[in-house]
Amino acid sequence: MSQNDNGHKSVVLTDSAAGRSVELPVVQGTLGAPTLNIGKLYKETGYFTFDPGFTATASCQSAVTYIDGDEGVLLYRGYPIEQLAKQSSFLEVAYLLLNGELPNAKQFQAFDHEVTHHTMMHEAFKSFLHGFRHDAHPMAMLCGMIGSLAAFYHDDLDLDDPEQRRMAAIRLIAKVPTIAAACYRHSIGWPVRYPRNNLDYCTRFLHLMFEVPSEPLELNPVAAKALDLLFILHADHEQNASTSTVRLVGSTGANPYACVAAGIAALWGPAHGGANEAVLKMLEEIGDASRVQTAVDRAKDKNDDYRLMGFGHRVYKNFDPRATIIREMTHEVLRELGVNDPLLEVAMKLEEAALKDDYFVERKLYPNVDFYSGIIYKALNIPTEMFTVMFAIARTAGWVAHWLEQQNDPAGRIGRPRQVYTGAASRDYVPMAKR
Ligand code: ACO
């Protein structure tokens, strides 16, 4: 690496066979590894770069969230996740992600008011919802319903208007819980509830989910508090697969509802947000602490594609700070709700067995955020098929924060990766009769 008179750093790459060099500028963020800007590499050398899975490639500049995977650090707009988990609320975190700063009391009140007063769904949504089979997966319904919001707000989709962009972000954060709960109620044949705007974000969601018209709902306040904490932990995680999907779709100028629907589709995969549902299924399948070692052995067997769900992370190679917080809260929440779930013991034994096993130690595989979250959701009576939907509700705050940031980025261009082509070289068409 060298540094010129203006203090700009660069790295010179040399192609000795071709006898030429290219000087690539180093981009340095506030925190994190120095990054080579390879924008001119192809033009000057004829080479592309190859990085399947983006293991070493930054796709954008972002000021929203920072992760240090080696140190187990997660910061939202600079604030450590541990401090936010202890002192903040999900809605305050959503404001922070969107606006870059913590709100003062007046700003928070205004934000809360706006979110609260955009929670209703258009009545026509009900007919749309009833078009789904009763056994449709709620993620499939959520994806379709969120994408269809564009059809309800097509007069407010001028992406050049910052106020319309902001309103779309508010609408998404406000409506996603209403729509998510409606998907659940459709699947069990309950009538859709209207949001109760005298309640806070998480209590309102629990009412939307569980209140029946025939009797009042008794809620333990611990439930809403636990949900709020889970939502804070899931709110953002920089350029993960679903957020990168939102940004890629956003780079085409597509509307924000389409972008977030694409993010929901990406989140659904078991390697990403679908893991929380998969973890609970895995723990139920293991069933008893005595069968934990068999599961660990299967996960290590290269001839078996079985993996310990909720273990491992592309970025965290130490521990996932969210998992540490969730692990502690799981015990507390279960105790306060008076729930005795034998799956907690299975989870703890599984974690213990994996953490002292060479296979997991060598590969730096630690429990991730989803390892314990399912047990808490289960204790809150959230059905397993809804776990990834819960993740989507929280992550909507992050998705819209990234979408807004991208819309304001003057350097923004359509995302268009290159490829290493491995198909047939050019050849002539053979008429069918001659094949
Ligand atoms: N169980 C067993 N082995 C594992 C696991 C696991 N959960 N995760 C990774 N490994 C092994 C791989 O087989 C590989 O071994 P090898 O080097 O001998 O080939 C090595 O660890 C590295 O794994 P990769 O798959 O290359 O790591 P990658 O960064 O691509 O994947 C991922 C990360 C997808 C999270 C992976 O660890 C996984 O599948 N975990 C289980 C699913 C999960 O919990 N997903 C949630 C992620 S967090 C989130 O999205 C909220």
Bound molecules: acetyl coenzyme *A
State the strand order across the main sheet.
1-2-3-4
User: Runs with pLDDT <50, length 5+?
Assistant: none
Beta percentage is 5-15%
Measured distance between first and last alpha carbons: 57 Å
Q: What is the alpha-carbon Rg in Å? A: 24 Å
Tell me the total number of β-strands: 7
Contiguous helical run count:
18
Shape: globular
Oligomer: single chain
Mean pLDDT: 93
Helices and strands, in order, run as EEEEHEEEHHHHHHHHHHHHHHHHH
- Largest sheet, if any? 4 strands, antiparallel
Helix fraction by DSSP (H/I, runs of at least 4): 40-55%
Structural class: alpha+beta
Question: Can you describe what's shown?
Answer:
The protein has 18 helices and 7 strands. It starts with a strand and ends in a 28-residue tail after the last helix. By secondary structure, it is α+β, with helices and mostly antiparallel strands. Residues 271-273, 275, 299, 307-314, 363, 365, 368-370 line the site of acetyl coenzyme *A.
Present the secondary structure layout.
Elements (H helix, E strand, L loop, with lengths): L1 E2 L5 E7 L4 E8 L7 E2 L4 H5 L19 E4 L4 E4 L2 E2 H7 L2 H10 L5 H12 L7 H7 L7 H15 L9 H27 L12 H10 L10 H14 L6 H10 L5 H12 L7 H12 L5 H9 L20 H17 L4 H14 L2 H5 L7 H10 L7 H21 L28
Helix pairs in contact: 3-9, 3-18, 6-7, 6-11, 7-8, 7-18, 8-9, 9-14, 9-18, 10-11, 10-18, 11-18, 12-17, 13-15, 14-17
Bound molecules: acetyl coenzyme *A.
